[in-house]
Amino acid sequence: MDLKIAYFTNTYPRATDTFIRREVTGLRQKGFDIKTYSVRKIDHTHDVDESVIEEKRNTQYLLPVAKVSLFANLIKWLVRNPVKFSRALCLAAKTSKPGLIGSLLQLAYFLEAVQLSTLLEKDGIEHIHNHFGDSSGTVTMLASSLTGKPYSLSIHGPHIFFDEQNWALEYKTRNAKFVTCIGHYCKSKMMLNTKSDIWGRLHIVRCGIDLKTFEFRKPKNKINRLIFLGRLSSEKGMQVLIDSLILLREDGYSPSLIIMGDGDEKSSLQNYVSRHNLDNSVEFLGFVNQKKIIQELEAGDVLVLPSFAEGIPVVLMEAMAMGVPVIATYVGGIAELVVPDKTGQ
């Protein structure tokens, strides 16, 4: 296929973005010409395997950019089409978060849109697709306004719904060609934040996994080795899981917990584990590649996800596909995947 499509996010490729990489790879295999762009390059801690490193090598980044180059691009777009430039600038003003900080951030997003537009034009891109829809979604919308190129969004949650009123979801949906939502919960949240005349642009497109990669095995009849896989951030509720281990020890049980992932909460969680004398029971592996994930799921007895907010976690799909029992909180889109006493708890 000749259609040239840009995939754009704020930071790509992260170790946790396997679902985006699978999507990009799948589209390329079907003949689509996909080029990836990102605002900034992720650090080396995410280089868990060659596929991540290769994607990083082939991705174009907006930052850092020389001030002279940025200023020249700004003047170029203004002179070339002052009407579109003014329209994009007005759109930026309308969709800005309130206050001085919000205005300064929006100015930064507009400048990033100018830089992205320059790259898209150079590469002959015909359609822009954005994952997540938050700040990079704003850049996408403004770049579309500048260039006249259509765009679409993938909405996952939960982060964008933490500040849904300030991410201009109505404007982003109204200006988009279409918006994909990973499930009914996600779509309902988008419907709540948009007017009914554009609900037809919202489509459910679920994430998926390759069942040939995650092969089924009979579940084990024991609970000695617990598995967690995800970002170590506040919405994941990891302290609840560690507190559960403490209660289990008080009742005479001593399962181990393998934690795969990294994030802002890692240091505080490690300190919490140490304060409760759980260092011999809890192991932090950091970011790991797909091969290691499969190995740990094969060795594990139960995957636990104690999140306070979720879209529909791909890790639950991976564990269930391999016959690993799952325990998860009844929040967000998890209810669409984990049915108590049928597919998990």
Topology overview:
Blueprint (H helix, E strand, L loop, with lengths): L3 E8 L6 H12 L3 E8 L9 H9 L1 E2 L5 H14 L1 H13 L4 H25 L3 E5 L3 H13 L3 E5 L3 H4 L6 H7 L2 E4 L2 H9 L9 E3 L20 E5 L8 H13 L5 E5 L5 H10 L6 E5 L3 H10 L2 E4 L8 H8 L4 E3 L17
Parallel strand pairs: 1-2, 1-4, 2-3, 4-5, 5-6, 6-7, 8-9, 8-11, 9-10, 11-12
Helix pairs in contact: 3-4, 3-5, 4-5, 4-6, 5-6
Task: Describe, in short, the structure shown.
The protein is of the alpha/beta class. Helix content is 43%, strand content 17%.
Question: Can you walk through the features of this model?
Answer:
Helix 1 links the parallel strand 1 (4-11) and strand 2 (33-40). The chain folds into two domains: 4-204, Rossmann fold (3-Layer(aba) Sandwich); 225-336, Rossmann fold (3-Layer(aba) Sandwich). It has helices at 18-29, 50-58, 67-80, 82-94, 99-123, 135-147, 159-162, 169-175, 184-192, 238-250, 266-275, 290-299, 314-321, and strands at residues 4-11, 33-40, 60-61, 127-131, 151-155, 178-181, 202-204, 225-229, 256-260, 282-286, 302-305, 326-328. The protein is an alpha/beta fold and 345 residues long. It contains 13 helices and twelve strands. It starts with a strand and ends in a 17-residue tail after the last strand. 43% of the residues lie in helices and 17% in strands. The chain is elongated. The protein has a seven-stranded parallel beta sheet with strand order 3-2-1-4-5-6-7, with helices on both faces. Strands 10-9-8-11-12 form a five-stranded parallel beta sheet, sandwiched between helices. Helix 4 packs antiparallel against helix 6.
